[in-house]
Amino acid sequence: MNTKNIDKIIYKTCTHLQSGGVILYPTDTVWGIGCDATSEAAIKKIYSLKKRSKEKGLILLMSSKKMLDRYINNMPTIANEILKNNNEPTTIIYKNPINLPKLLIHQNSIAVRLVGKYFIHELIKKFNKPITSTSANISGYETPKKFSNISSYIKNNMDYIVPEIESNIDSNKKPSKIIKLIDNFNFEIIRN
Fold first, then answer.
1. Could you tell me the mean pLDDT of each successive run of 10 residues in the chain, 192 residues long?
2. Which of 14, 38, 176 is nearest to 97 (CA)?
3. Per the confidence metrics, is the pTM higher than 0.85?
4. CATH architecture, domain 3-191
């Protein structure tokens, strides 16, 4: 697909995000359900759609360290090291989030993944705000490995479905590694 078509898809996706819509889109790992991470109303739609407990957090996707700095108070030293040396999709759980709806904050923390390539990076960069990410399934059901495995219930309840525009999502992809920051210098691996 050429750049002009991708730009049109990004524009259309941003329009849905700005109006509080819920989207089905390719992340850097698996297909995800997302919305504007600063819109509590849109976040509520995702919890309802997935039949997910509000006690279970959502991952936020961001395009850069600069964007991340707008939502984390007192960035731990170890986080900068992890981000600098990371070469695989990694979600980091940060303490002391700011400028986000309370619904996204669990135990004074949020989970964030910086995406470094593909359509999703360009989308978030253009949108200029984080978007939520959760697997494209009802809570408790298996994460679909490819677009054709996503249930019609999920597809039919989206405000917008991003077309399959690249081959970065395939059956060999897996959810991201998850790291929890303990303090300024220590962390623990939650999921490898």
1. 81 97 90 96 96 89 94 87 81 93 93 87 96 92 87 96 67 71 83 80
2. 38
3. yes
4. Alpha-Beta Complex (3.90)
